[in-house]
Specification:
Shape of chain A: globular
Helix content of chain A: over 70%
Radius of gyration of chain A: 19 Å
Shape of chain B: extended
Largest interface: A-B, 61 and 63 residues
Oligomer: heterodimer
Number of strands of chain B: 12
Distance between the termini of chain A: 29 Å
Number of helices of chain A: 10
Order of helices and strands of chain A: EEHHHHHEEHHHHHE
Strand content of chain A: 5-15%
Strand order of the largest sheet of chain A: 1-2
Structural class of chain B: alpha+beta
Radius of gyration of chain B: 24 Å
Distance between the termini of chain B: 60 Å
């Protein structure tokens, strides 16, 4: 069934869009990532113009993160206090990122910057997570002779402004989570994603948060960042397509619920290795695009658009 | 409706008098019609077909040679575009060159009774911007090889079905009645689509006629489009609300199902 999208001004198969939304929702619910890094390339593949894909993708992320977040709240898997600190950093970073984005646009190389950002960050985060979770799985296979690692007391624990994060069982300074939020906010604005794929590993490895609150807390922060992004896109570029968003959302919210169920049954290490593989696959595809000779050297874009 | 019809008839005629001054010897006139004057884009729009038909009005007997030919063009609203070319820099493919195209129709189709070379001289083409290449204007392109960018634009659009040259698609009966069909793609932009009909003899234009097809979004499509342009803040909030509600509904629904 073909459906005409009023803002994108293209006609796309409705079931294809429902399916895409479902896949991204599934990933979102399982791993606590918004799925922005998936939805944008997928929509582009379906024939939606890039600018519309980025903005509408953000709108879809809002819905799937609400759906996922509520499921996690029910399971008490959200550290709200940590979430607010991350969010404060995230909003600050987002402002910085938009400034950087405009600077790069003026230099005329924003496309390249975005693509390189994707490859570098997806690549390094994916590799790190893959290595670590593989090691964790191998360690478990060997049996329980090795004691689980105690929480490290490194530089993170010597900073001022300590705060108790009860849900995470942490008593640490607010500076590291603020900085994590800031970094993710900058990336999110430049790459047009919620930043979950950076946030989740950062919460696990840098902040040492327990796996059971990581996903929910990440969704909490993604909800606000993607909501902010959607609104800004609607306001400045008028590039949010509500009909497209609605189709993605219907697929996405259902996918997210199923994803949360699946995620709850898998072990944390398995979850992380799957996410790592997914991130690496997207990274590989983008890297190939930069390296292989494109099918067509020429491309047509509306005048004055960055993407 | 009547006013629009009057406008669409008078304006093009007034405009076309100067450049098209028909040769007085061959007093032949086009009388033309369209199967529809408006196309409504609704949610289930999957493209449309337009039939352009007409007749040649003349006082004298039909001249034998050169033969009468008909060209029909249909042109979508103009866009400003940038065409980019990639090249390899330090091992990766980067957009390095670009050319701005000031006017390129979002849709352009040309149908003729015979191969274009036989139907139209270059001079007439240049004067009336009839072929696809003439319909695209890019001024101030300073990059070397700018024409190859325009060629690339035409090639890409032809692949999408947005630009089309169909030689021999106009049927002409008894040198008097003609008709042709245009298949409009599903990815249609809204706006005024200009249909032009040219009569030629020996490559020279004898008479021309112009009319407009009104392509508009209707219903929900129209409402959302207008809201997004006129009340962007409200539109953004509405988008967020729908997203949040859908997320909540799904979560609540699944919680209820599990109980």
């Amino acid at each position: 069934m073909q459906i005409y999208l009023p803002i994108a001004e293209v006609s796309v198969n409705a079931f294809l869009l429902l399916g895409l939304g479902g896949i991204v929702g599934l990933v979102s619910g399982m791993f606590g990532v918004g799925g922005g890094f998936l939805i944008t390339p997928l929509l582009f593949f379906a024939g939606v113009p890039p600018a519309i894909a980025v903005a509408t993708g953000a709108n879809q992320v809002v819905a799937s993160s609400v759906s996922g977040l509520l499921a996690h709240i029910r399971r008490k898997g959200v550290d709200f206090r940590m979430g607010w600190v991350l969010l404060a950093g995230g909003m600050t970073g987002s402002g910085l990122g938009i400034f950087l984005f405009n600077l790069l646009s003026r230099l005329g190389q924003i496309d390249l910057a975005v693509q390189l950002c994707y490859v570098v960050f997806l690549g390094s985060v994916g590799m790190l997570m893959f290595q670590e979770s593989l090691r964790a799985i191998l360690r478990q296979r060997k049996g329980p002779q090795q004691l689980p690692k105690r929480k490290q007391h490194g530089w993170v624990h010597r900073m001022p402004l300590k705060m108790r994060f009860r849900a995470s069982g942490l008593y640490i300074s607010v500076i590291p989570p603020f900085l994590v939020g800031l970094g993710v906010g900058v990336l999110a604005a430049i790459m047009g994603v919620g930043g979950g794929f950076v946030m989740v590993p950062a919460m696990i490895y840098l902040l040492g948060m327990p796996a059971k609150v990581v996903v929910g807390t990440s969704l909490f922060q993604i909800l606000f960042v993607s909501g902010f992004t959607t609104f800004m896109h609607a306001l400045t570029n008028q590039s949010v397509d509500m009909v497209l968003a609605l189709l993605l959302i219907v697929g996405g919210v259902i996918g997210a619920q199923i994803g949360t169920q699946v995620g709850a049954r898998l072990k944390a290490e398995q979850l992380r290795i799957l996410l790592a593989l997914l991130v690496l696959a997207v990274c590989g595809k983008l890297a190939l695009e930069l390296l292989l000779t494109p099918a067509d050297l020429y491309s047509v874009v509306p005048k004055g658009r960055a993407a | 409706m009547i006013r629009r019809l009057a406008r669409s008839l008078c304006l093009p005629l007034a405009l076309s008098v100067a450049p098209l001054a028909p040769a007085p010897l061959l007093a032949e006139e086009v009388v033309a019609g369209l199967s529809q004057n408006r196309i409504a884009i609704d949610t289930t729009f999957t493209g449309s077909e337009i039939l352009v038909f007409g007749a040649v009005k003349r006082e004298e007997p039909i001249a034998e040679a050169p033969p009468l030919q008909v060209i029909v063009t249909l042109e979508g609203p103009q866009e400003e575009l940038t065409v980019r070319r990639k090249s390899r820099v330090a091992g990766i493919w980067v957009n390095t060159d670009q050319v701005d195209v000031d006017h390129a129709p979002s849709y352009y189709a040309v149908a003729t009774t015979a191969p274009l070379r036989e139907v139209l001289t270059d001079t007439e083409d240049l004067r009336n911007s009839i072929t696809i290449n003439r319909a695209i204007r890019s001024v101030g392109a300073t990059i070397e090889g700018a024409p190859s960018f325009v060629q690339a634009l035409v090639r890409l659009r032809e692949d999408e079905g947005a630009y089309e040259l169909d030689e021999g698609a106009v049927e002409l009966a008894e040198d008097t009645l003609f008709r042709t069909r245009f298949r409009l793609p599903a990815n249609l932009r809204e706006g005024d689509y200009r249909a032009r009909i040219f009569l030629t003899r020996g490559g020279r234009i004898v008479d021309a006629h112009e009319t407009v097809v009104d392509v508009r979004k209707v219903g929900l499509e129209r409402w959302l489009f207008v809201l997004s342009r006129e009340q962007p803040a409200l539109y953004g909030l509405l988008a967020l609300m729908i997203a949040a509600l859908a997320g909540y509904a799904a979560s609540a629904g699944f919680a209820w199902l599990r109980r």
